[in-house]
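Narrative summary of target 7.
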Amino acid sequence: MSVLDTPNPRRAESAGQRETAEQGKRPASTRRAPRGGSRSSPLDRTGTGTRIVILVVLVLALLWTLVPLVWMVLSSFKPATAITSAEPSWSFTPTGEHYAGLFTGGNELIPYLWHSVAAAGLSAVLSVVLGAPAGYGLARSEMRGKRHLSFWIISTRMAPIAAVVLPLFLMFRQVGLIDTIPGLVLAYMTFNLPFAIWLLSSFFSDLPPALEESALVEGCTRWQAFRHVALPLTKPGLVTTFVLCLVFAWNDYAFALVFSGPDSQTLPIAASQLVTQAGIDWGQLCAIGTFVVVPMMLAGLAVRRWLVTGLTLGAVTGE
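Modeled conformation, tokenized:
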């Protein structure tokens, strides 16, 4: 180590004093936060009244979201007499009879569960697999009418389901897809695939084209640049798109009601079959509702890091 490389305490002390003096001359809004200190969040810089309003709105939103779910889960463990009681009570003896009733007798839930997993999972996977190259091509294309094409793609997702049910039913009946899992997968993809293309194109648009151009200069083909450069960098977008498509298909009732049958009915159809002319089995209805909600909540929690990153991608740049 040379003499110039040796740290000089006096030089460091004088440099620190100059930096402190310069920061003191700067306006308060442009001063840098001291190292190791805590930075104030935008919520800390707002007034007390605004913070109280924000907290009240957050509490109301949480109550609006969580109270029905908590009531449903608790009711699924209550005895039948406690569920229909005129006075709701928080103290009860938990029972699993409603869950046991879903898997015994004529209420065999496993086929419905398998149909939901197969139809929703396959439609989400195929929507992401087909939507990724389509969204990439849409993002990198310079053709005329690109914005109109993008709007037309997402407009098919916003169309009411009733507008496409009859044409799809006639086509599926001609090719024998009624009451089949492939028929349900295709039905879900009619809405999930346009959504995946539109959402993934926005993620690919945020990528700097220079990254792929560097790969092309190194000898990669366009497909290799897409597969080895663009796809890994948009992993949060892929995960976000998959989860949203899975949730849309998992919760669907309208397509399943029209296109499914005894060999392909899903969980929402099983829940509707508990409402009969003889009455409503509220205990089993709450139990099957828990079966529908809990897997999607666990999937969202498992990928919440990717989900938050994907949903906020582009928010900083305002795109």
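Confidence is low (pLDDT under 50) at residues 1-17, 27-36, 314-319.
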